[in-house]
Design goal:
alpha/beta, 9 strands, two-stranded antiparallel ribbon
């Protein structure tokens, strides 16, 4: 069974959702038969490379928040990340264009699903848990690619060529639109079921069991934002208008 995950490195709920999905997958009895593929989705595709903004400033501008409200929102996300065992820096992070990261993820996919998963984990950790930005230095991305087991010179060549894997990124984004995904994270299980947002691990467990045992058209579980949505409450996600902000 294949699980495809549309996500963006700049999306905090993708970071949290990946951890929740992996918790469910670890307990799935057919784990060894599940292939996980990461797909591209840019939250801010029109932002120019090198145009970075502090996350708190971005929240203030996008949502009309005060500084105190933006700080509280980050604390709320950080608390949910911490509950999943993730480190989440609530101060000092920045926000920028992720297109090159998605190109590198397709480069990693060509080397194997394990390499792609290792790279996306490294990118999430670097963006949400570490001080050094992933948006302002290609050499930072090269180092993360090497950490994921990829050849650093080949990764550097990908970054130097704006056309490398660009079509793959755009194809993923078109396919997301065709599937009705207008926010991330968005999980598609064997092209039978979709799970929208950073749902609890229990929702992912249910989806894995249903996808394994049925042959239904794509049905979105636990949210109302995707095609063929079924009942259930919405979970936190990020879309073109921004990320869900925890309410105090």
């Amino acid at each position: 069974m294949r699980v495809e995950i549309w996500s963006d490195i700049a999306c905090p709920w993708c970071y949290v959702g990946k951890a929740r999905f992996e918790r469910a997958l670890a307990d799935f009895p057919h784990r060894e038969a599940v292939e996980v593929v990461h797909r591209s989705f840019e939250l801010d595709p029109h932002r120019a490379k090198g145009d970075t903004t502090p996350v708190l400033t971005m929240l203030e501008r996008k949502y009309g928040m005060s500084q105190a409200q933006a700080e509280a929102a980050e604390e709320g996300v950080g608390a949910q990340a911490g509950a999943e065992g993730l480190t989440y820096r609530t101060r000092g992070r920045d926000h920028g264009n992720t297109f090159d990261m998605h190109r590198l993820l397709h480069f990693a996919k060509a080397a194997g699903a394990d390499r792609q998963d290792a790279l996306i984990a490294a990118l999430y950790r670097a963006n949400f848990a570490e001080e050094q930005s992933v948006f302002d230095d290609d050499e930072r991305l090269v180092a993360l690619a090497a950490e994921a087991g990829l050849d650093p010179e080949a990764a550097r060549a990908v970054l130097a060529d704006p056309a490398a894997y660009a079509d793959d990124v755009r194809a993923d984004e078109r396919e997301a639109a065709e599937l009705g995904a207008n926010g991330v994270p968005f999980f598609v299980l064997d092209r039978k079921y979709g799970v929208s947002g950073a749902q609890p691990a229990e929702v992912f467990e249910q989806a894995l069991e249903q996808a394994w045992g049925s042959r239904s058209p794509l049905t979105v579980l636990g949210g109302g934002d995707g095609a063929g949505a079924t009942g259930g409450q919405d979970a936190e996600a990020c879309g073109p208008d921004g990320c869900a902000v925890p309410q105090a």
